[in-house]
């Protein structure tokens, strides 16, 4: 199960433990992921109420920041490289947030993703996606000749028949 993003709650809905200079916030609701907030040496002299207030302020600041984030995604124009190899990390990375590709079965290597002029096997494709860990993803499967076009999307149950 994917754990949900931490959000503001009442003091009774979170347990606070301390690990050195870090306060760990564990939600009573197990579907919400825990958070470690590094406070520093002052943590040793803070009450749980003060620690919780600091946590709540951090979440409020995050929420205010996210409200102002432009959610427009970048799609690299057709004919331009969508991915680039990062020598330092030894893996491919996306240049934008929208990816056009083809799925193929190469037999020996299994499923491969054809992006630009590169073929990434499942492991390389997965490593590339890990740079977006914590994000969500929508996948639209289209005819191989239509990857450069935005399909019309209808939210409904698939036709049975």
| Structure summary, number of beta strands | 8
Estimate percent helicity: 10-25%
Unreliable stretches covering 5 or more consecutive residues: none
Annotation field: number of helices:
2
Major sheet, described briefly? Answer: 3 strands, antiparallel
Give average pLDDT, whole number: 93
Backbone structural class: alpha+beta
User: How many domain regions?
Assistant: 2
How would you characterize this protein structure?
It is elongated, with a radius of gyration of 22 Å. It has 161 residues and is an alpha+beta fold. Strand 2 and strand 3 form a beta hairpin. The protein has a three-stranded antiparallel beta sheet, with helices on one face. Strands 6-7-8 form a three-stranded antiparallel beta sheet. It folds into two domains: 57 residues, no CATH class; 64 residues.
């Amino acid at each position: 199960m994917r754990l949900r993003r931490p959000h503001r709650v009442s003091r009774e809905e979170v347990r606070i433990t301390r690990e050195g200079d870090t306060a760990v916030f564990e939600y009573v609701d197990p579907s919400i992921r825990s958070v470690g907030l590094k406070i520093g040496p002052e943590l040793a002299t803070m009450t749980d109420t003060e620690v919780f207030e600091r946590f709540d302020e951090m979440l409020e600041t995050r929420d205010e920041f996210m409200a102002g984030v432009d959610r427009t995604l970048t799609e690299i124009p057709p004919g331009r490289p969508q991915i680039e190899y990062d020598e330092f990390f030894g893996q491919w990375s996306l240049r934008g947030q929208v990816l056009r590709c083809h799925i193929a079965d190469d037999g020996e290597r299994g499923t491969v993703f054809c992006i630009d002029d590169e073929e990434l096997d499942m492991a390389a494709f997965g490593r590339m996606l890990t740079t977006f860990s914590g994000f969500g993803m929508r996948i639209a499967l289209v005819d191989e000749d239509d990857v450069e076009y935005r399909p019309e999307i209808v939210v409904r149950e698939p036709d049975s028949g």
